[in-house]
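Data availability (excerpt). The following record was deposited with the supplementary files.
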Amino acid sequence: MVQKTKKLPAAAKNEVTAEPKRRGRPRAYQPEIALGKALDLFRKDGFAATSLDDLSAAIGMNRPSLYGAFGDKRELYIKSYQRYREDARAAMIDIFRDELPIRERLERIYAVALDIYLSGEAGPRGCFTVMTAASEAVADPEIRAMVLEGFAELDKAFAACFQLAREKGELPDSADATVLAHLASATVHTIAIRARARVPRKELEAIVKGAIDVMCGA
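Predicted structure:
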């Protein structure tokens, strides 16, 4: 005798065939995109004012997933700062490496810096190092080391530019490459702060031009 197969009710069938709900990271999770969203938030609001809930909402991941992917908030902040420095370095490295006349080189460096500092959908965000990391550096040795490393790296890059300009006769033999490098870095910092305060680009460009005139002896 052939037994008839009982048909399952539609609801029961759906329960059997439905895939279990996934938890944690969404399928579209992409570390670089997620880190970029965290970077944007930290640049806008800083470390203390950015909550885990803010990060979770911006990135589209729940807290357990955030911890699993990036560690705690401090670790995510440090990873975001590292990403910022890598992006800034990539944007300027060719200008520092190319053997351009010193005035043209400085003009191009500051133009790129202004593009970075004035970016942001909600308004200019300035420089991550100057606007937020420097504050966290007071109490956090690891962040302080990163900030100081960034300052030293920028000073060294500028010093090499001025040294080359002096060797090529663009600057007098008495020009101190180290002093000029500090002035060049200080100009980067001041336009970053003023950009965050929404000083118009034309005014920032005027500051840059005046600084370049001083550095180049015009």
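Summary of structural features: The CA atoms of residues 28 and 99 lie 43 Å apart.
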